[in-house]
Design goal:
Membrane-bound Lytic Murein Transglycosylase D, Chain A
Length: 235
Amino acid sequence: MAFPDLFKLEKLKISAFAKVARDAGSQIGSPFEAMFNPQTLSRTDTNLFVASNATGGATQTATFVRTQPSALSLTLLLDGTGVEQMGLINLFSSPQTVQERIDTFLALAYQPQSETHEPSYLKVTWGKKFKFDCRLTAITTNYTSFDRDGSALRAELALTLTADSDIVKQKAAAALNSPDVSHTRLVRGGDTLPLLTSQIYGSTMPMLGVARANELNHIRGLTPGRSLIFPPLAR
């Protein structure tokens, strides 16, 4: 029986994949490992609302549209002075410079891949507890220390990562993986058929089928108080 190493420090890692499923066969290169674990991780969860078009004494001021993908913000510190290395390591290896580490990360997570022509699908892991499927939305590089020749000795990578998992996982997480179930929705002021269809199905594609099911001749100007049927998606 193997015992865990109680003295091992788990490092945050960012792995890149060519496919949204993020299977081992589509992994790109080696994971990017943090030199120093971040002090904080900030996760933002957002609901999207639109202002109501209703007038008069309407009490509904905003209509829920959808839940936005979660966003993760973190900062990675890169150091080229060797302070993170111990003992005789420097004698037997040539560590990457700060700029080389930055270029490695950009090639892995930011730049479009030659086969897919778009940036990689990413997975952030920290030990066995933290996992976050995402894509890189923004990166800001702050250089904080320089050598006498102008080369960077220390830099911070401020990352913004947007949640991005395959559609099967998304539906499972949201308990929406039951296309056989019909839905009903009471029309409120400002509702339109495209808006309601997007809320129910996550897309406006089934809109014409919904219109037929409810014998609608138009998709706008729905009567508040009317109950609409949203039939199950065809398999």
